[in-house]
Amino acid sequence: MKSNSKLLSAPYSIWVTVFIVLPMLLVAWFAFTDGEGNFTLENLLSVGQYSNVFLRSIWLGALATAISLVLGYPLAYIIAKMAPKRQSVMVMLVMLPMWMNFLLRTYAWMTLLEDNGLINSALSAIGLPRVHMINTAGAVVLGMVYNYIPYMILPLYSVLTKIDQSVIEAAQDLGADDRKVFLKVVLPMSMPGVISGVTMVFVPAVSTFIISKMLGGGGNLLIGDLIDMQFLGSAYNPNLGSAISLVLMVIILICMGIMNQFDDGDDLEGGMLL
């Protein structure tokens, strides 16, 4: 039986080794060596000069995550309360933009936000002044929210649909109003979905480079742009790029560890006790 289990898991183990473990080891190797392969800490020490880029990336990523949560939670809750057939249609509509290429979706927002784009043309047509939106931090956050909000909605919807209706009815029978039912029952029981959604949005948002390059115009440099420049740009330095990537991975792991502290099963059960 054990041999069969090992045989079945072999393809997955090979995949993880080749596409996850080995690349991470290569990143660590380049981060701690110079161009000649000698051990050095110079690359990691040089990362400190880009602290403002790290702070900007974390701030914009956290802002996009917060906006996605504020917008995504009510929508996921509304979908979860619909009839099963309508739920399927709404979930399909949420996933529909994801069927389109990521670059095309971002190009579409460039067309909308440009100074002579559709939004400004519409404002001008009704006599309102044009607004400069492209190549701003707001445009970058908007692109993050649009592209990643499905990753917030779907985990929340999955958790909310699994909440036992009898638990909510029991809380109502005990005298809890709608506000208390949501705060004491629904919200605590949906925290696993909140944690998953926050993680799935924050991680790609903080490391993105296409959105910031296309909607930020290069004036809102993020960590992903910095890494891209070190590997593919004119300032070719894979050792420094690997060091920045390693620091980014550590930051993401720390953020995920902090978020997981809120996902406590005992707290969720306690929240149900009105």
Keywords:
274 residues, mainly alpha, 14 helices, globular
The whole-number mean of residue pLDDT values reads 89
The coarse silhouette is globular
The count of helical stretches stands at 14
Number of strands: 0
Q: Which regions have little confidence, pLDDT < 50, spanning 5+ residues?
A: 265-274
Largest sheet: none
Give me the Rg, rounded. 23 Å
Order of helices and strands: HHHHHHHHHHHHHH
**Percent in helix:** over 70%
Alpha-carbon distance between the two ends = 47 Å
By helix and strand content, what is the structural category?
Answer: mainly alpha
- Tell me what portion of residues adopts beta-strand conformation: under 5%
Describe the protein's architecture and organization.
- The protein is an all-alpha fold and 274 residues long.
- It is built from 14 helices and no strands.
- The chain is globular, with a radius of gyration of 23 Å.
- The N and C termini lie far apart (47 Å).
Give the structure's gist in a few sentences:
This protein is mainly alpha-helical and 274 residues long. It is built from 14 helices and no strands.
Give the arrangement of secondary structure elements.
Blueprint: H1 2-31, H2 42-46, H3 51-81, H4 84-95, H5 102-113, H6 118-125, H7 137-160, H8 165-173, H9 178-189, H10 191-207, H11 210-215, H12 223-232, H13 238-260, H14 265-271
